[in-house]
Amino acid sequence: MQSPPPTPGPWGGNFVGPLLLLPLLLLLLPLYAVAEPDQSIRLRLQQIRLKGQPKLVTGLVFLPQPGELLLSTMRGEIVHYRIKRGIDTERLGSFRLPEQDYGSQCAVSLALDPDFETNSLLYASYCISLQTGRISRMRFSTNYGQVAKSARTVYEVGHPKAQLPFHNIGSIGFDPEGALWALVGEKQLYLPAQDLKTDLGSLIRIRPRREDPKGGYDPDPRNPFADREGASPNILAYGLRSPWMGVLDRRGFYWIGDVGEHKFEEVNLLREPGQNFGWPKAEGPCKKKCEGLTDPLIALPHALTGRYGRENPKRTAKPRSVYVGLEYPRMDEDPYGGRLADAILIGDFYAGWVRAIRIDDDGRIVSDHHLAHVAGPSAWAVGPDSYIYVVKLRQTESSRLFRMLPVPAEPLAR
Fold it and tell me: What are the CA-CA distances from residue 175 to residues 38, 107, 179, 206 (Å)?
């Protein structure tokens, strides 16, 4: 006796075939879920009232002492604050960097030594002239008059032909091995960014001489050109124009916001030592003669007519200036409920949009969503309370410090 034909399934025909595919579909489902942008969180700004109303703030670091922080200004003043009673602050004191030369786009960046709690070393990058940028170390204390006197030059870079105080030293920080890294612009001279004999237009990695009474540094022996004759042993990557703000993430990847000239803003991802990001041979994705060049992870046309522009609630036609703000770490006490864990915050100084980006171990973007609108941000940090803090520069008025609080998200327009 012949068996009856199989009952047709919802796709028509035999239901057994699709049923056999179900395990495969279940395996693929997490991949699609990870790649879907996380739209579950938005942030709003809560202003922290700064005593004394500092102007032109470009640097922010939190100290180990509860609620204490340092702000640096483009005029070379370092101000010590304590946050108290939620949004109020106490101004504890200040000092000035030696030989600081104030100028447009000469931001002052700050970093604490990895052993700050025992050695009290504070590092600052700043300009000493139109031609030259410097990184100094100081021994921080509340004897503010002695801090500036303790300053020693760690590193200097520049060019005698530089005519404007642009494209200087940007973000500085430390890697897990204790090496100091710094983003260095090409002083608006173009060609040095492809010249391995100079540090201009590069990401450098050096070893400060912490105990040397004269300061100074040694090149990091891990650098890719440390043994190449005629090349700077300080260079970790090159081909950069104006790398203002960047971060080193938990994987050991460097995220570099490189401000473009006429066409593109770039977010570059350094995954291997020695990468060449192309400037001035290429701006944005390379189109020809691309051998040896690394394209940006994200290239944003200045017109900003795509998704980033559409999702920004306060669109603007002002000039563009991209940055990488910070990486939000995984932590037990997370006011954002884990929704920003391992995310990199990027944005545009003028357009104001801020986005949260996640990548996988191969450097591919798996999540990218609009987070907030912050016009004119100049410094970012995660505070001891696990909240994100941001400074708004406000060039003609006093700078402002904000704590970023989570708010319920509204669905994006499709």
Answer: 29, 22, 6, 10
